[in-house]
Fold this sequence. Notes:
Elements: E1 6-13, H1 21-27, E2 33-37, E3 40-45, E4 52-56, E5 59-64, H2 67-77, E6 81-82, E7 85-86, E8 88-92, H3 98-120, H4 124-133, H5 136-139, E9 158-167, H6 175-181, E10 189-191, H7 199-207, E11 218-221, H8 225-235, E12 239-240, E13 243-244, E14 246-252, H9 260-263, H10 276-281
Antiparallel strand pairs: 1-5, 1-8, 2-5, 3-4, 6-7, 9-11, 9-14, 10-11, 12-13
Helix pairs in contact: 3-4
Amino acid sequence: MSKPIIEERLYIGNxxxxxxEDDLRAYYEGLSxxxxxxxxxxxxxxxxxxxxxxxxxxxxxxxxxxKDEADKALEKTDGQEIKGRTVFAKKAHPPPTEEERKQRAxxxxxxxxxxxxxxxxxxxxxxxxxxxxxxxxxxxxxxxxKKKQDTNKTPSGVTSEDTVFVTNLDxxxxxxxxxxxxxxxxxxxxxxxxKRVPRYLLKQIKQKNKPxxxxxxxxxxxxxxxxxxxxxxxxxxxxxxxxxxIVEAAVNKPESEEPEEAEEAEEAEExxxxxxxxxxxAALEEAA
Length: 288
């Protein structure tokens, strides 16, 4: 079920990173603007000055004094250019409640358990027990790894009805920042797989406080097929952190195929809500 909209508030996407709050106020000159918000993110600290570098996330919110003013702004904005970039606009949704945040975390945990149980051929309730019974040596096997296919390509299988596959993603993007990008469509969860590195290198990365980048791909799950199709139509080809992302329908791998490639896509998850259950799944991604 779609969330209600805030009639006096606009969500504006695909905003150029150089756009400021004053720029948006100037753009809406003549309309009654009450508030402008451009969410920001600290990317990294300068190597010499050690000062954090802060950048906007490519979207924003504008609060108007009335529904009529917001309607005029929507007509003025959607599909138009601001500082050389075509933006899209729509009425904003209220932020998720605490109950909704908890439900998102529960939905992700349930999804993860069901997929894992399906792979192992056991009931969801027995999945944890079977994992505990696996020989310890299996986790530390020194056998050669199988060569994996290019994970930047869409795998073959049954097309998903509610999930999209994002490629050409900036390697510094996170589940949180990507969740903000798709926020107008209220995604259930977002998963940005981190790069796989040997354990000894992971330890060094943590000790040196260096970031662990992603693999350039992501999965975003929505509540229904309509939201999935809107995500493809509205975000395919849009810029995220300076790169044009490719958004297409994800696929569910056939049961007969080896699940090795999909395994990483179920190991971590983090939403913009900051739920502890989801943050735990994204521990590797937040190693820095």
